[in-house]
Amino acid sequence: MADARVIPLHPENGSAARPADRGDSGRGSSVSHSRSSPDSGDESRDESASQDGPGSWDETVADALAFARRRVLGDYEVDEFGFDPELTDHLFLPSLRPFYEKWFRVEAMGLHNIPAESGALVVANHSGTLPWDALMTTVALRDHHSAARQLRMLGADLVFRMPVVGALARKTGQTLACNPDAERLLRGGELVGVWPEGFKGIGKPFRDRYKLQRFGRGGFVSAAIRTGVPIIPCSIVGAEEIYPKLADIKPVARLLGLPYFPVTPLFPHFGPLGTVPLPSKWYIEFGEPIETAPYQEGSENDPMLVFNLSDQVRETIQETLYRLLAQRRNVFLG
């Protein structure tokens, strides 16, 4: 198989490169267009009817064959972090959409708070035993934001040490959760996502659901201040219930080199069936940006400022979680 072309993170036009043909990723923009043009009349109906005909299947097959040919010939691009936009848009995101739309029935709010082009840092609560919350946030931004933003997630080193998973993470836009990588992406105008609770958040017991854990040392705040990008608080409700963690088998976790080995109502005693997430109803809300541009150069070295800003982000997310939970009537019906 031929090697792919590597594209720089900072092309000459000053913005991150985007794939010319986004395939399925155009879902978000097409939805926005149809909503903004309710009076399109017969033309829209005719177009919809034509898409449902045999020709649409021919186009789908042709696109699939063209995609396969480009992969075999190496006629695709990756950036310096290993991100493969075509693979992400044609294979990775389509595999997640059924969960987003049908299983979790995610409702995304506050998408207008995400900038259309410039860099920003999305900071979210982490929960659910497995990182479905990060995946659903990615789909929300790619499919339903007006600019179809691609979220570049920061992951723990454990992710990149795992066979297959580590390579897939790189190809779908993730990189190591460290300040140098985060700052390079932010300066390149990328939308970066971080879950500062880490394993303490995603692996907490079910009795502590929706209670935010400590936000580390505030490294994400330093990165945002140093690059002058806004911080977008993101609150996710619904992920806590997909795998209610009742206990942790620590000896097994140590044996496997994992931070925890969860016991849920269905896992491990139901085997692979226990890995199917429960179909809770999800809400993802992106809060108002917290600007960092006004801070003077070197402010990221002020520990008190970093702590206060980190605490502000944490409190914003926590208050939003409580508000969303108060509005929710049923875990599975919303």
Automatic annotation (TrEMBL):
<dbReference type="GO" id="GO:0016020">
    <property type="term" value="C:membrane"/>
</dbReference>
<feature type="compositionally biased region" description="Low complexity">
    <location>
        <begin position="27"/>
        <end position="39"/>
    </location>
</feature>
<dbReference type="InterPro" id="IPR002123">
    <property type="entry name" value="Plipid/glycerol_acylTrfase"/>
</dbReference>
<dbReference type="Pfam" id="PF01553">
    <property type="entry name" value="Acyltransferase"/>
</dbReference>
<keyword id="KW-0012">Acyltransferase</keyword>
<feature type="region of interest" description="Disordered">
    <location>
        <begin position="1"/>
        <end position="58"/>
    </location>
</feature>
<feature type="domain" description="Phospholipid/glycerol acyltransferase">
    <location>
        <begin position="120"/>
        <end position="239"/>
    </location>
</feature>
<dbReference type="InterPro" id="IPR016676">
    <property type="entry name" value="P_lipid/glycerol_AcTrfase_prd"/>
</dbReference>
<dbReference type="GO" id="GO:0016746">
    <property type="term" value="F:acyltransferase activity"/>
</dbReference>
<protein>
    <submittedName>
        <fullName>1-acyl-sn-glycerol-3-phosphate acyltransferase</fullName>
    </submittedName>
</protein>
<keyword id="KW-0808">Transferase</keyword>
